[in-house]
């Protein structure tokens, strides 16, 4: 009996258009095929920052273009959109140019800011958020295809299909989620947003992934896969094997999503087509800095302050742009003598400053307990 959680996997060792097209078609076939998509179709990409495709920060234009080619014949319009990191929300043309997406316009694809049509405030029956301001374009498109990028993440350990929908919300909502006193609460905030409208289908770009301290300051690594499936949690669970996770549900975000019934609770519930689980592990993949696994859930909020990663400025790289002070959700940074100073008592260790610093000057510091563990 076939599992309801079917994931298609296909090897893809370069971003050459012909190879991407063939691999995407194979992954989609193995996943059971794309659903019928008509009218206004939104491709929700990961466009975190205006960075070059080879840096593995954003969804690659070759994959988005190949997917658009498959959808365009039956759709009234295909739009690629996202809400990038806080400081880039007014740099759209720069974003589209530097990520390589501007070439998609030649295919008839529309490139737009996700918030172009404004925001809608919605009630959320969540465990972390009670209300959220969400992009109208996301809510009102006839169909949404989630086209994510596989990366490490210094807070949630991995970012894939589940985490990619965090970008549907406005800055204030995302900051509210980042103010969470524990990693578990942050994970629940991500899931709260994901549950507002689950995408019709999910495609994950893991041809080049990001290792190290992602999602913006890690290193690109050729992992060589494209994944596809109707269930985002199932796709992420499969992709986490590339990162070396034997048990994907050890990742707090995936465990929390499974606990809320958003997908499979174990490998046996996933129908993986195109690969064996053991074939997926990428030798030597460097995950993000680990958190404590043995701390009971009830103590995580308390322990978070003891073992979590903290931002630390490298003055030699800092240009004094003050971007970090603008993205901090709790105003824990102030500029003094042209450099940011961190108020340790106010800092919630969300690492937004690390993620958004254009020079990479805000590093990640591990306290002695984290290093010992």
TrEMBL record:
InterPro entries named in the record: 4Fe4S_Fe-S-bd, 4Fe4S_Fe_S_CS, DUF362, PSI_iron-sulfur_center
Keywords: 4Fe-4S, Iron, Iron-sulfur, Metal-binding
Record-annotated 4Fe-4S ferredoxin-type domain positions: 309-338, 339-367
UniProt entry tagged with the keyword Membrane: no
Organism lineage string: Bacteria, Thermotogati, Synergistota, Synergistia, Synergistales
An example molecular function term from Gene Ontology annotations: metal ion binding
Native species: Aminithiophilus ramosus
Protein name: DUF362 domain-containing protein
Top-level division of the source organism's lineage: Bacteria
